[in-house]
Specification:
Butyryl-CoA Dehydrogenase, subunit A, domain 3, 3 domains, Butyryl-CoA Dehydrogenase, subunit A, domain 2, alpha+beta, 15 helices, about 400 residues, 4-stranded mixed beta sheet
């Protein structure tokens, strides 16, 4: 592995850092977060403004082709920018799904008219998109989705959509969404799906935010009740919805992958230094030092896995299994070990929220509540482990009894 930037990468990193120094405030602490006390609406507005500024400077969609307003850059350049941005106090990236998943699908599968109308506004933060995939009965196996799209029988050139989606990120703030539907139940499950894009204020679409344990409502249920969608809003051919979705999913790892604040083990070490335990500092306790060492070794191991992937990207190759493995290991490293340790150090005060502890506690609180979601986002742990086992280790595949079977027979 090569742990150093190439000369070209070092130049790009310096360029990103210089722009960020002029346009954002450097974090005073690694665990500092943006927008304390702001409402969700205020955070969305801040994210829109920041996306627009990045786009104007050429950082809004680094890997997009120049013809669509991007930089025509490499995935490695995208990673470098995110690493540098992680040192600055900037709004949360609410455009990861729009820029990283949905719009790249439009590049490939939508008409010239659709691309001309929607790509620019999405890039500059004027329009937010969501991805309408998961359903109550079709999570990891999207092939089992039941949201129906049926041809209009009243002379209109379009479709009527009925069904339900769930875990739709920022659906309540989105202007548009890409929805995967079932259009033909008489063929195998992945062959009978079609993609459409919809305006989220279309009559018959109901968005219901899901209140999470943290008090936030990042995710939503979305209901389609006799929603009319013109055929001009079909993306790709009828029955080719899975191909459209795969285009988005192939971009997902880079799209939703964030950069954790660097050296979180130092944050834990400072907490241990000041936390009292048995008449002294928690740092003096061997058992607590073991937990700090566990955090450090797991975080460093995760970084080494990521470094392998970045080395491949830097040399223009596709990353190997290390990025899938790092997905499995990333949840327990920052989202389980660190908050558990921090909460234990607070003793009975560990049950208190950031409202009582202060702003220094907000990252711990966010990681604690986000730990379960990290095991689902970007593909569940179980699905990723299956992929690693079958495609990397060469283990026998799990039995699949639905292959080639028409979808309507799978429901019986």
């Amino acid at each position: 592995m090569d742990f150093n930037d190439s000369p070209e990468e070092a130049t790009f990193r310096a360029e990103c850092r210089a722009w960020l120094e002029l346009n954002a405030k450097r974090k005073a602490r690694a665990d500092q977060t943006f927008g304390q006390g702001q409402s969700p609406e205020q955070l969305v507005a801040a994210s829109r403004e920041w996306q627009g500024r990045k786009a104007a400077a050429g950082y809004g969609a680094i890997t997009w082709p120049e013809a669509f307003g991007g930089r025509g850059g490499t995935p490695m350049q995208e990673v470098i920018y995110r690493e540098e941005e992680g040192h600055f106090e900037v709004p949360p990236n609410m455009f990861a799904v729009s820029i990283g998943m949905v719009i790249p699908s439009l590049f490939v599968h939508a008409s010239d008219e659709v691309r001309a109308r929607h790509v620019g506004p999405a890039l500059h933060g004027e329009e937010l998109w969501c991805q309408l995939l998961s359903e109550p009965g079709a999570g990891s196996d999207l092939g089992m989705l039941r949201t129906r799209a049926e041809r209009c029988t009243d002379g209109r050139d379009g479709w009527i959509l009925n069904g339900q989606k769930v875990w739709t990120t920022y659906g309540q703030f989105s202007q548009f969404g890409m929805v995967l539907t079932r259009t033909n139940p008489n063929v195998p499950k992945f062959e009978g799906m079609t993609s459409f894009f919809v305006a989220m204020d279309t009559p018959g679409i109901e968005v219901c935010p899901i209140r999470q344990a943290s008090g936030e409502s990042e995710f939503n249920e979305v209901f389609f009740n006799d929603v009319f969608v013109p055929d001009s809003q079909r993306v790709g051919a009828e029955g080719a919805g899975w191909k459209v979705t795969l285009t988005a999913l192939m971009n997902e790892r880079l799209a939703i992958g964030g950069v954790m604040p660097p050296d979180l083990w130092r944050t834990a070490a400072e907490m241990m230094r000041v936390a009292p335990l048995n008449g002294g500092s928690a740092m003096a306790d061997g058992r607590m030092r073991e937990r700090l060492a566990e955090l450090y070794m797991n975080a460093h191991g995760l970084w080494l896995l990521q470094a392998r992937g970045l080395t491949a990207l830097g040399k223009g190759r596709e990353p190997g299994p290390e990025l899938s493995i790092s997905k499995i290991t990333s949840a327990p490293v920052p989202c389980r070990i660190l908050p558990h340790l921090a909460i234990d150090l607070q003793a009975e005060r560990g049950v208190l929220a950031a409202q009582e502890h202060g702003d220094d506690w907000r990252l711990i609180e966010s990681l604690w509540f986000g730990a379960a979601g990290m095991r689902i986002a970007g593909g569940t742990d179980e699905i990723v482990k299956n992929s690693v086992g079958e495609r990397v280790l060469g283990l026998p595949p799990e039995p699949r009894t639905d292959k080639g079977v028409p979808f309507n027979q799978l429901l019986s």
